[in-house]
Amino acid sequence: MTPSVSALKTSPDCLFCRIIAGEIPANRVYEDEHCIAFPDINPQAPTHLLIIPKEHMVSVAKTLEEHKPLLGHMMATAAELAKARELEKGFRIVVNTGDDGGQTVHHLHLHLLGGRRMSWPPG
Ligand code: AMP
Ligand code: ZN
Prior knowledge:
Layout: H1 15-20, E1 30-31, E2 35-39, E3 47-53, H2 68-84, E4 91-94, E5 110-114
Antiparallel strand pairs: 1-2, 2-3, 3-5, 4-5
The protein binds adenosine monophosphate and zinc ion (ZN).
């Protein structure tokens, strides 16, 4: 049986858990039982959404076997959001991980960036 949202693991001091709980406002452009998406407060591209799991997970580095379907679901959701925003020329999905990876919020999240030409390598 799928756990209800209230039964999911959350972390009270986590910014993104507080967004999921509705304690901090965010414009939910997408929501299902597993994840939500909302605009990044400091956008780095014309489209810059964050896709986050409702369950608190620190980072992709902490992935357990049981999380694999959720990660696939989030990736597919990012692609659907990109399609809905007509990013057919391309987009980028970024998962900053750990300090060297530039992760500042320690609740796993996908950045969906699009609407401009991306450069490589990333900084
Ligand atoms: P990262 O640096 O990969 O951990 O990404 C965290 C992202 O969260 C940054 O791009 C921030 O701009 C974004 N962010 C921080 N606080 C908020 C907020 N309240 N609402 C939306 N995005 C936020
Ligand atoms: Zn959290």
